Amino acid sequence: MTSDSQPTPHPLRPLTDEELSRARDLVVEKHAGDGVALFFRSVYVDEPKREELTEYLIAEHAGQTPKTRIPRQVTVLFDRVKDGVPQLTEEIVDVEAGEICRTKEFPAYCQTSYTAAEFGLFHDICVASDMFKTAMEEFSIPEDFTITIDPWPYGGLDPEEDVPRYMQGLVYARKKTDNNPDANHYGYPIPIIPVMDMATKNMIRVDRLATGGKGDSLYPSPPSDKPKELFTHGQSAEYAPELLDRPLRTDVKPIDITQPEGASFKVHSDNLVEWQKWRFRLGFTPREGAILHDVCYDGRPILYRLSFSEMTVPYGDPRPPFQRKQAFDFGDGGIGRAANNLKLGCDCLGAIHYVSTVVANPEGKPDVAQNVVCMHEQDNGIGWKHTNFRTDRAVVTRLREFVIQFIATLANYEYVFAFKLDTAGGITVETRATGIVSVVPIDDGKVSDYGNVVFPGVLAQNHQHIFAVRIDPSIDSYSESETAVVLEESHPIPMNKETNPFGNGYEVRRERIESAMYTDAEPKVNRTVKMENVNKKNPISGKNVGYKFVPNATQLMLADENSTQAARAPYAKHHLWVTGYRDEELWAAGEFTNQSKKEEGGVKAMVERGDWFVDTPSASSEKGQRSHPVVWNVFGLTHNPRVEDWPVMPVEIHQFHIRPADFFTSNPALDMPGKKNETSVLLSCCGKTESPQTNGEKSGSTQADPLTHQQGTGDDIDPKKLQNGNGATDKENKRKSTTLSKIFAWKKEST
Amino acid sequence: MTSDSQPTPHPLRPLTDEELSRARDLVVEKHAGDGVALFFRSVYVDEPKREELTEYLIAEHAGQTPKTRIPRQVTVLFDRVKDGVPQLTEEIVDVEAGEICRTKEFPAYCQTSYTAAEFGLFHDICVASDMFKTAMEEFSIPEDFTITIDPWPYGGLDPEEDVPRYMQGLVYARKKTDNNPDANHYGYPIPIIPVMDMATKNMIRVDRLATGGKGDSLYPSPPSDKPKELFTHGQSAEYAPELLDRPLRTDVKPIDITQPEGASFKVHSDNLVEWQKWRFRLGFTPREGAILHDVCYDGRPILYRLSFSEMTVPYGDPRPPFQRKQAFDFGDGGIGRAANNLKLGCDCLGAIHYVSTVVANPEGKPDVAQNVVCMHEQDNGIGWKHTNFRTDRAVVTRLREFVIQFIATLANYEYVFAFKLDTAGGITVETRATGIVSVVPIDDGKVSDYGNVVFPGVLAQNHQHIFAVRIDPSIDSYSESETAVVLEESHPIPMNKETNPFGNGYEVRRERIESAMYTDAEPKVNRTVKMENVNKKNPISGKNVGYKFVPNATQLMLADENSTQAARAPYAKHHLWVTGYRDEELWAAGEFTNQSKKEEGGVKAMVERGDWFVDTPSASSEKGQRSHPVVWNVFGLTHNPRVEDWPVMPVEIHQFHIRPADFFTSNPALDMPGKKNETSVLLSCCGKTESPQTNGEKSGSTQADPLTHQQGTGDDIDPKKLQNGNGATDKENKRKSTTLSKIFAWKKEST
After folding, report:
1. If I label B666, which of A191, B83, B338, B465 is the partner at 20 to 30 A Cα–Cα?
2. Which residues are reported to carry the modification 2',4',5'-topaquinone (chains A, B) (predicted)?
């Protein structure tokens, strides 16, 4: 209970330098004198418990002073290293009280994500090791190449495997072209994978890779007597403009996106964002990147929390050791940790607001990750339109979107993530996959069933990306028990005299999810997930107010049910999971994915717990508890690479749309002004702009645009002859086509 | 053979006024003195035969003078009315030779699309008729309302029904608010449907509509003794800004999209368009709207023709006469005929090129439909990106798109269609559904299984929109026999010691389509349609060069297999059809959809013909002929309306992507310049623009952005304190986060 006149700081405010330092110092102090070294992995805010935060939010939105002051807790994750043995430890620190309130020590098999420092370490020790040098003697590499290693997670353990914290490296050569460190080494993979013990810093072994093609063995052939000559083809795999084997296009004219009157959004303190009736708090975590808290529209809550939770990238090459090639880019890496420092005019166009975040360096001290999130408005074409055919009056408004974007680089690969709020009350969740596909060597001239040859000697392996988005709804209420999840489907009704005499009728079926479960997308019945408030009805339709989305029926994980790949990511085997809410449960594949053999504490475990969402549980659900439903939407892409994905792949875009369903009493974008944009210009045939006087206002000539033009000369049309009419009215243009409005103008409308 | 020095006019050049008049005059001349009246329906270019056009295109692209001069033929479709009986007739006129070369008279049951003139006629005769007046006596309507009728296609005939050309009307009242003709009458439906014989101009009957709710009869109740009072609730259904029940938003700041150096595309004569290595000829037909002919990239053909072919909108309300409520917006209406006259700065933002078209009025004389297509470039976010984690060097390019857009109004409803070419060699086909949902009356206070109450007394019926896109490929060759269609799928391999010892392997299966067939989308196996050139291999991968798309597994038509709705549109029952090419076969549901009982000459008939695509047909295909494969992609939306879809629905967007698959030897967008856009600006927290000096160049402060800001005051942050760093380098900012590049900078890379 705070009684002073200072406003209570918002529990979702971002971490500060001072808080981070304070938490770190308290941890250092606690462990001082133990004879241990501390290796800091990450420091971030411990999110408030839902019950406490909900109470706060209700008061906040009611304009009241929240009664409870939520303790400010910070999580410090670190290795406590004694006698060379690291103990992964988590201390939750109350930075205001100045005390450690909770300590967790994790079992040795729990491997948290790698840090940048570990990556650097791996590289140095590996290249200096005799084991690596010996392995490299198998190959002869042209003199103008240098060795480069991409450190990678060791991946999932085989059932019989029991190893400490390992890291492996994908080995490449880089052409020393112009001494340019941005030459693309991924064009020159070398068929070995060194493995290191991260605790002892010892090289464990060097795995050798099979390099055969169709019909060849799954296993590597023994080394030949003399070094194998690599990289003799001389072709270019470069993408950096100064190294490119072709000139850059010179005919891409700039598109400028400007907001001369400023943007329509506001960013307040404590990362409160307001835009076009939307309001949310932006969060950012080392693992998830940007997250949206307390998403409201016009003062009504919709989502308590929206986040990307996990993504796994299983590779479909059956040759060992590629069964271990399965990245968990959130659990093994961390999208927030890997977030790009975004650049104005490159990553984001227009009027942009950037957000930075405080992170811990290996000593646990604060650093700033600059511009990890960008926010801006954009135009996405027509939002709604209707033309009255009687009067020819068109009312047209644009679809305006507010984009929250962040980008992560995971070694070779890039992901662009975005949440897009729009003026029609919708939320689009978008992923773009780009970057460089992961490649392995293949013998010259061979092709493979396991991937595509995208460059001489380079096999881009077939793989999948399977994303999980966590949606914690608060549909028009912060109460945990008011939200229901309903599956709505459209089914045919067999033709029958009583209810469907002509066979055109179909039926909408609804089924409320009563207990934790999973299911799949089913477009055959248009399966739609509705998140509804069971107590609030739409005054027009009488139905529960809600938001809905249609899960995309993208391909699920292909790996065999009994494989380690599948066991590590059961979430990737179904499109939709509905689980009972528990504080701190944010991870679709569980907290520790790195070197896991199977999921622990992910959505599968949550479902097995048997929580229920109705007042009276069914018998089978009795072991869990009455819970608030959390929805996990799983989608992905099967990526059998194209040559066009080389050397950097064009974005592959996936989206799903969370849209209001009887949440409002009419189109929420109805009050969008249909104002004509005054800077748009008419172009003549040849890309040249018309003189301003003819910009749609004074035009009216019906001659000489391409479709009515008559001379088949093959030459460009003289731009001076091209003044296309735009919006010409009947008065201005007697040769306007016979439209309905004209017909109706001829008649006298009945009155 | 042309031997003069004049270049041969391009066979895909648009129709001219003169050609249209000439064709019409020749038809009038032919029928003069027959004692007949001619009612002109449409006049358009008769597209050249594929064989002839192909020969021309090959010569054109080789820079040679085409040997054959293709006859210039124009189709004139008209009613030849004798003694009040119309005979639908098509004359193909050679406008250069000045002769009619072909005449087709259609059987009486073939009903072509309605013209605007017919719509106007219906309205006048109906409201003046005693039959309509008597029917209206059942209702009492407030004095400030006037009657308005939307003419509609009569729809599919029931099996036993045999009627001449009919039209029906949906009857509404319109509030005479401010005498504004744009008041929304759709909020006030009246439960009768008048039906007229279009030949005799006689009213046939007035159907009465059931207005009950859940559990009520499928059939209308008999009229009560005294008139039923309608529209007493007084609520507003308006969308026109001047009539709106709420103020327009005033905080939507403009987004200006400008191209100060002009656009990057060129439109030449004979509607040749060039943009960023793309080249195509734009066509426009009364039925399809815009179509793309001869789509090439970097001189290599990809698609011979790309078009929207049909869309059916079946309604799922089983109550008669709604079994007939099934629009075919291409066959019954015509997207080109219904195309909007687009407005600069409203329908299209930026630097826009408009295209108009010549159409025939009811007298067969030329009119111009202004600005029916707009073309422009747009930015669609990041196109490809890679950051080298060692150097922190990001190379990022934008995804530039070229949009060909057209919009059609079909009474209450709008569709926005677009083809989008992009810099990565991709083609996106997009539809946006908007406009006013079709509604019927429902008794006050009732709800229905057949739709949603979106306004008092107004039921928006459940329905579907099912689109067919016709793709005629010419993959790297104009030769008809070189293109193959292949289904490629990714399948799990059961775990087994020999080929998949760890269970992570999966298999890519290919099956060439050998004869005409249909199938469905199957995301479970990632079913992908590849259009390949069987003779041209990608020099890198060794695979056939190709383009591919993944058919979306959207819900197919729900109507019972034995229903008239299903019989009229078999195409809507499967996602993918592959048929043998024949000239003039462009229509998924056949040429005549209006009042059809079943498809004739649509994709079902084409498949049944049994054409084959390989040199040696299988036994079952022997009845057809060796053909070039044409691909039809079917997708749609099941639209069970939301209250948010009222009064004008926010766009519902559907897309599919035709993308290169080993067509190129690397990412075709590799040469896109990653030039920084100089007009993008930084925003402080409050939507205000930073002063230009701080635009990303001189910034470096790491303080005081929302996520690092520390004072929880609840007030806005002072914008002066907010100068977010952007692109700060290590030199400029010592508190940059611990990134890999820093780690690697610490180490000396092995050489």
Report:
1. A191
2. 413
For residue B148, which of A730, A740, A670 has the smallest C-alpha distance? A740
Indicate yes or no: CB of A724 within 8 angstroms of CB of B371.
yes
| DSSP secondary structure, A161-185, as one string | ---SSEEEEEEEEEE-GGG-TTS-G
Q: Which residues of B are catalytic?
A: 329, 413
**Any idea which residue has 């040429």 for tokens?**
B591
Task: Write down the ipTM of this complex.
Answer: 0.93
Give me the CATH number covering residue B299.
Answer: 2.70.98.20
- Residue B487 covered by a domain: no
Q: Residue A490, class by beta-carbon neighbours within 10 Å (0-12 exposed, 13-18 middle, 19+ buried)?
A: buried
Burial class (CB in 10 A: 0-12, 13-18, 19+), A38: buried
Instruction: Tell me the pLDDT tens digit for each residue of B693-733.
Output: 333 333 333 333 333 333 333 333 333 333 333 333 333 33
Give me the residues of chain A with pLDDT under 70, please.
Answer: 1-7, 619-622, 685-751
Q: How many domains does chain A have?
A: 4
Determine the average pLDDT of the residues in B44-49: 97
Q: Which chain A residue has its CA at the smallest distance from B257's CA?
A: A257
In degrees rounded to 5, what are phi and psi of residue A266? -130, 140
Q: Does B441 touch chain A (CB under 8 A)?
A: no
What are the tokens at B620? Answer: 């079952």
- Give residue B554's identity as a one-letter amino acid code: T
Q: What pairing do the DSSP bridges indicate for beta strands A139-140 and A228-229? A: parallel
CB of B233 less than 8 A from some CB of A: no
CATH of the domain at B26: 3.10.450.40
Residue A619: what pLDDT? 63
What is the extent of the structural domain holding A145?
Answer: 118-243
Return the SS3 of A415: strand
Q: Is B710 on the interface with A (CB under 8 A)?
A: yes
Within 511-540 of A, beta carbons closer than 8 Å to B belong to 521, 523-526, 538, 540
Q: Which of A354, A552, A560 minimises the CB distance to B724?
A: A354
Q: How far is CA B258 from the centre of its chain?
A: 26
Q: Per the omega criterion (within 30 degrees of 0), is the bond before B647 cis?
A: yes
Judgement on whether residues A34 and A161 belong to the same structural domain of the protein:
no
Quick check: A718 contacting B, CB < 8 Å?
no
| B72-125 residue pLDDT tens | 999 999 999 999 899 999 999 999 999 999 999 999 999 999 888 888 889 889
B671 and B590 housed in the same domain: yes
B337 and B357: one domain? yes
- How far is residue B437's CA from residue B453's CA, in Å, rounded to a whole number? 12
**Which B-chain residues 23-62 have CB contacts (< 8 A) with chain A?**
none
Residue B123 within a domain = no
Which of A137, A138, A152, A139 shows the shortest CA–CA distance to A194?
A: A152
Q: Tell me whether residues B541 and A387 touch, CB distance under 8 A.
A: no
Strands B483-492 and A73-82: unpaired
Residue A133 contacts B, CB cutoff 8 Å: no
